[in-house]
Write a structure and sequence with these properties.
Chain lengths: 281, 327, 365
């Protein structure tokens, strides 16, 4: 008996050590990536980095102002498009749990969540870029908005599901019209969860490159016209990272750090709000 | 309760008719009535908006599918089904075969899964069973979330400058052509990127194992390992599988990180260190320049295949999870 | 208020969804773009050849200083430039390969003008840290390297041309373009001319089925990989190699001389009589001091500039820009290692440019 139990306990301990070892190993790539980006990026960031546009090929200096502004505009416009649609569909899904439309709509959200970003890029090229006859920031925004939708819809639906029905009943019993009940009672109650979903979706798409290749296209100048091509941080990183110019690599490292900080900041805010609201996305 | 929430508008309208007929229509009441009607109108408009929005998402997905199908018709007509296993991709001769990319995609994705599964399951077990809370669990949870948050282009950039030289040295040691880029490098990058999907799903599943089951096993004298092996694993088998499927879906569609480190060649990869191309990376490389209609259409057909495969995989994964959580 | 906003946005979404059912209509330019072109639109969008990119970005930056016109040139590859011009999503394309019959037919009979803007050399750049001397490469060796039959740097065939150079015993990593590229076209045209094997097995074109090696996107990508990979060899425009201090080989030309690629040797190759449509290949030149792998690069525009919702103002601005490029802009070529257009070529280019029309009337006098 004795040695057999020892063997079993030993086995258990070995397994535990192995599992913990493997789990801890996940920290290594993360630290390696974060550390490397920070190390390379931090030295490249200075004032001119933020306010200048890139110099002609092969000339030293320049900055990423065009990509920075472009990224904010493209992501901002995408958010303006996706947020109302996403929240309203989320409300519909949480209010109509069993209708036929809800079933298909929910299925669509599931599908949309899995669609590779590059495919969305192709589709938007045919929907917007080709008919209009020009690459444009707005087409990039549409592509990103499509990618944001499923996350916003899901988080809205999940948040509203958590709210007690008595809340709705109380509002309706007081004679509140349906839309005011939703907009004035339900939404404010769930706003934290919905906002965190929105922020998470922004964090997800801020670094998306593939759909922008065929839509936003890029622009060496600072542009704020959303019907024209525009640069963005991920595009710039992709283009400059694969180039031979050390100067461009430097810009790309700096841009990576900025993008990383932006995305991580959004994630941290989301985390804080989800913890408060106890929502699972 | 369900009915009152579902159409309070109808009931309210009825009520309104009743009350208004009871009262004499003086001036104040007319105004109030008008306001009520206006509210009903906005209410109905609001309901319609909700329906339109829900419909819009459905239309969007159908639209994506239709666009992909319509645009890939020329290549379907011209190349037929054999397109999928044609071995040569040669735009100059107008020969299009998707086999190298299918193979590249499958190789990178499955290799990535093989590398990542031990790690993601380990994370799931630690978070779900060993340390459900406490500093270690918090640390691990944050790590996994951060891994998911890093944009793929940054993975690619890092891979290009850090991982590629490491792999090249490794290749020099084992005596294959030292390119550094290739299927293997992309798999490694992908394996890091997909850890969070299987890990968080696995953790949820392990958490869902009913504690009476575990407690029963412990009280019979089972060790931790025995409980994990003979209670948790069988119970969560399908759930863990679903998590792996979600990881696979992500790996299949990943574009930028792979494009940057896979080597971009249309040749059939000879071994896992060869450069290659995945479906997503070949689209990223060649979509903006496919000058002949068939070429373009062939690329879109690749997109369609990619779309269908990821959709099916995701749907199966979601189905399993749904069945699991409903049980 | 909130509701109204939601409804307008709903309308927008429905409009977008509606638009996709009419995806393939070309003329359906929206009113929004119409307005923006009428109000002061000071941008020109070009895309294509990465071969030209260093020169173009310099030229357009200078042009912007004097005229304020913003030229957005995206270095996406010649193939992409031609396709986007065909799709009318850019104002001009740029390519180092003239459009072929298939591409011509895709524009539905609309004539496309080829305006030569510069000539450049495609150089063989390699990454061998220990080799200080410039390698000499013969056409046959080059073909065999890119066919994958010569696998090591210390292969006897390479050594035969480079006596006295200590070649390392490492594998050759071939780097080619992954995108459709005029640079590839120049390179493969040359190889097809000098190697029967290459002609039959691979052929020439912007995007061939490469028998060996790995791909990089754009001249930038190829140069980037070569710079990072010990033992790599790839072909890029001279400017990329020079700007990045990368080693490049002397190529043996038709006359048997080993030629260092430079502005002078490229000019020697480019010193030819151009046909009226300017479509000519400079590879494997007869000139004794000419670099054999060189070629013109063209800007591509529609002959008839009135299409879609283009204004005459925009057409004029673009043609003036191109006129500046072939005349005053040429002063920036040499510093960036491009060969300035020979006078004969400038004359041909000028004539072609003047044949461009807006609504049937010539734009430039």
């Amino acid at each position: 008996m004795g040695p057999r139990i020892k063997l079993r306990i030993g086995k258990s301990t070995v397994f535990k050590t192995l599992v913990i070892l493997f789990a801890s190993a996940c920290v290594i790539p993360l630290l390696a990536i974060l550390g490397y980006i920070i190390k390379e990026g931090i030295t490249k960031i200075n004032w001119s980095f933020f306010v200048n546009v890139p110099k002609p090929v092969g000339e030293a200096g320049g900055g990423i102002a065009n990509a920075l502004v472009g990224s904010f505009i493209i992501v901002g416009v995408a958010a303006i498009m996706a947020i109302p649609v996403g929240i309203l569909s989320g409300i519909y899904l949480s209010e109509n749990k069993t209708s036929k439309l809800a079933y298909w709509s929910r299925l669509s959200v599931d599908i949309l969540q899995g669609v590779p970003s590059i495919v969305i890029g192709i589709v938007v090229y045919f929907w917007i870029v080709k008919p209009i006859g020009s690459f444009s920031a707005i087409s990039g925004s549409v592509a990103l908005a499509i990618m944001m939708l499923p996350i916003i819809v899901r988080s809205t639906e999940e948040t509203l599901k958590l709210l007690p029905d008595t809340l709705k009943e109380a509002a309706l019993a007081l004679g509140m019209p349906y839309h005011r009940m939703i907009l004035k009672v339900i939404l404010p109650c769930g706003i934290g969860g919905i906002l965190s979903g929105v922020m998470l979706s922004v964090a997800r798409i801020a670094g998306e490159t593939a759909p922008l290749l065929f839509t936003a296209f890029g622009n060496p100048y600072l542009s704020t016209n959303i019907t024209k091509p525009m640069h963005s941080l991920p595009l710039l990183i992709f283009n400059y990272a694969t180039s031979p110019y050390d100067d461009w690599h430097n810009l790309a490292w700096g841009a990576s750090l900025i993008l990383l900080l932006w995305v991580l900041l959004l994630n941290i805010i989301t985390k804080l709000t989800t913890r408060k609201w106890n929502i699972q996305l | 309760m369900e009915t009152t929430v579902n159409n309070p508008g109808a009931t309210r309208r009825d009520k309104l008719r009743v009350t208004s007929s009871l009262q004499t229509p003086d001036k104040v009441n007319v105004r109030r009535l008008r306001r009520s009607y206006r509210q009903i109108r906005t209410e109905n408009a609001f309901r319609k908006t909700l329906i339109i929005m829900a419909l819009a998402i459905f239309v969007l997905v159908v639209g994506i599918m239709i666009t992909l199908i319509v645009q890939s018709i020329p290549s379907m007509k011209l190349l037929g089904v054999k397109y999928l296993w044609g071995k040569v991709w040669d735009p100059v001769q107008d020969i299009y075969g998707a086999y190298p990319f299918l193979l590249g995609t499958l190789l990178t994705s499955f290799l990535a899964l093989i590398i990542s599964v031990p790690f993601s399951f380990a994370v799931a077990i630690v978070l779900g069973e060993y340390y459900p809370r406490g500093w270690f669990s918090n640390l691990l949870k944050n790590v996994v979330e951060l891994i998911a948050a890093i944009p793929s282009v940054i993975y690619g950039f890092w891979g290009l400058f850090v991982l590629v030289p490491i792999v090249r040295n490794f290749e020099l040691k084992i005596g294959v052509q030292p390119m550094g880029v290739g299927i293997f490098t992309s798999s490694v990058i992908l394996s890091i990127m997909v850890i969070p999907y299987a890990a968080s799903m696995g953790r949820e599943m392990i958490r869902m194992v009913p504690s009476p089951l575990k407690e029963g096993a412990y009280s019979l004298g089972a060790t931790r390992w025995e409980v994990i092996r003979s209670i948790i694993m069988p119970y969560t088998k399908s759930g863990l599988f679903a998590g792996v499927l979600l990881s696979l879906g992500r790996a299949l569609g990943e574009t930028m990180a792979v494009t940057m480190v896979i080597g971009n060649t249309s040749l059939i990869p000879k071994n896992i260190f060869s450069p290659g191309n995945t479906m997503a990376s070949v689209i990223a490389n060649e979509f903006t320049e496919a000058a002949s209609p068939v070429y373009l259409s062939a690329l879109i057909e690749l997109g369609l295949v990619l779309f269908l495969v990821t959709v099916v995989i995701n749907m199966i994964g979601k189905r399993i999870i749904k069945r699991f959580t409903n049980e | 208020m909130k509701l109204l906003k939601n409804i307008t946005i709903a309308g927008l979404v429905v409009a977008i969804c509606g638009a996709m059912t009419l995806q393939s209509c070309n003329g359906g330019g929206s009113a929004a773009t119409n307005d923006s072109t009428k109000t002061e639109d000071n941008t020109i969008l070009g895309a294509g050849s990465s071969f030209d990119n260093p020169l173009f970005s310099k030229m357009f930056a200078e042009y912007n200083k004097t005229t304020g016109l913003k030229v957005n040139y995206q270095s996406v590859g010649s193939g992409a430039g031609i396709l986007q011009l065909t799709n009318k999503t850019v104002d001009f394309g740029a390519s180092d390969a003239p459009m072929n019959a298939k591409q011509d037919s895709a524009t539905n009979g609309t004539a496309v003008l080829h305006i030569p803007v510069t000539a450049g050399a495609v150089v063989l750049t390699y990454n061998l840290a220990d080799v200080k001397d410039t390698l000499k490469i013969t056409p046959n060796v080059l073909a065999e390297i890119f066919l994958g039959t010569i696998k090591k740097w210390n292969d006897a065939k390479i050594a035969a041309d480079n006596k006295g150079v200590k070649l390392p015993n490492i594998e050759i990593v071939v780097v080619h373009r992954s995108d459709g590229s005029g640079t590839s076209n120049i390179f493969t045209t040359y190889l097809s001319k000098v190697s029967k094997d290459w002609e039959t097995k691979v052929g020439k074109g912007s995007a061939v089925n490469w028998p060996a090696g790995q791909g990089g996107k754009g001249n930038e990508g190829v140069a980037g990989i070569v710079k990072q990979t010990p033992g790599a060899i790839g072909y890029v425009e001279l400017a990329y190699a020079v700007q990045n201090n990368m080693a490049f080989a002397k190529m043996q030309n038709k006359a048997g001389n080993f030629i260092v690629p430079s502005v002078a040797t490229t000019s020697a190759s480019a010193n030819v009589q151009l046909p009226a449509d300017s479509k000519i290949s400079l590879t494997n030149t007869d000139a004794a001091d000419g670099y054999p792998i060189s070629g013109f690069s063209w800007v591509l525009i529609y002959k008839e500039q009135k299409y879609g919702d283009r204004s005459i103002d925009k057409a004029t601005k673009m043609l003036k820009l191109l006129q500046w490029v072939i005349h005053d802009g040429q002063q920036y070529s040499s510093a960036l290692n491009y060969a300035p257009l020979p006078d004969a070529a400038v004359k041909v280019a000028d004539d072609i440019l003047k044949s461009a029309t807006y609504d049937g009337k010539p734009v430039l006098q």
